[in-house]
Specification:
It contains 8 helices and 13 strands. The chain is α/β, with parallel strands linked by helices and 226 residues long. Helix 6 (153-164) crosses helix 8 (188-204).
Length: 226
């Protein structure tokens, strides 16, 4: 799952990003509203953590522009302000939730989970399922029946993306944007290596699913045909 943090207090932004990465999120961090809007308009993020007071363009203007462009990514506003009018303005501009600084890390994570909660393949906040295969966020592992194997962070993120989009072909470009960031210079060979690792681990746990290759396009996850 990929998040964007837009916060001009560099120490806070970097601390937030590190906390989110430790909780298995892929994170891009920017420090002004203009760059934040540029990143957000790509539409590759599952959630945006957005400060209101930003240089270049304030958070509310970023929100207005995003919604005007029909970008529906959930937005969690961060603000040092506690006045009710500011909260109302943020929600009216298109925010999905808000959090007043200073805040407790646990509450931030809970609000992000609430905003990014999916239906269908997601069983709860820490476990994803597809055709009997379980992806565990807390332990960074994948299991099937009694079989379980650990995943690296990138393996986990790629598998989460595949399971969240079952039977859909995910292009290599989309995988790179979601996992490494749209400005990344990662090449396709990196993806092929991780897909190879994941296929071996699915085999280890005797998973009834497979990662299919769509030639010159990308990858999808599907049930193994009997």
């Amino acid at each position: 799952m990929k998040l964007l943090v837009v916060e001009d207090e560099i120490q806070l932004a970097d601390a937030l990003s590190e906390i989110l990465r430790r909780n298995m999120y892929s994170v891009d961090t920017v420090y002004d509203g203009i760059q934040g809007l540029d990143n957000a308009l790509t539409g590759v993020y599952n959630c945006i953590v957005l400060d209101i007071m930003l240089p270049g363009m304030n958070g509310l203007d970023v929100l207005r522009n995003l919604r005007a462009e029909k970008i529906s990514t959930p937005v969690l506003l961060l603000t040092a302000r506690s006045e009710i009018d500011d909260k109302i303005n943020g929600l009216d501009c298109g925010a999905d939730d808000y959090l007043t600084k200073p805040f407790v890390t646990g509450e931030l994570l809970a609000r992000i989970r609430a905003l990014t909660r999916r239906k269908g393949e997601v069983r709860d906040d820490n476990r994803f399922e597809f055709n009997g295969v379980l992806l565990h966020k807390n332990t960074c592992s994948i299991s099937c029946g009694e079989n379980d194997v650990k995943l690296s962070l990138k393996e986990y993120q790629i598998m989460e993306l595949l399971i969240a989009n079952p039977r859909q072909i995910l292009t290599k470009e989309r995988i790179i944007e979601k996992i490494w960031g749209y400005e990344s210079d990662v090449d396709y060979n990196n993806i092929e290596v991780y897909i190879s690792f994941l296929r071996k681990k699915l085999s280890i746990i005797s998973a009834p699913v497979q990662i299919k290759t769509a030639r010159r396009m990308g990858y999808s996850i599907d049930s193994i045909e009997k």
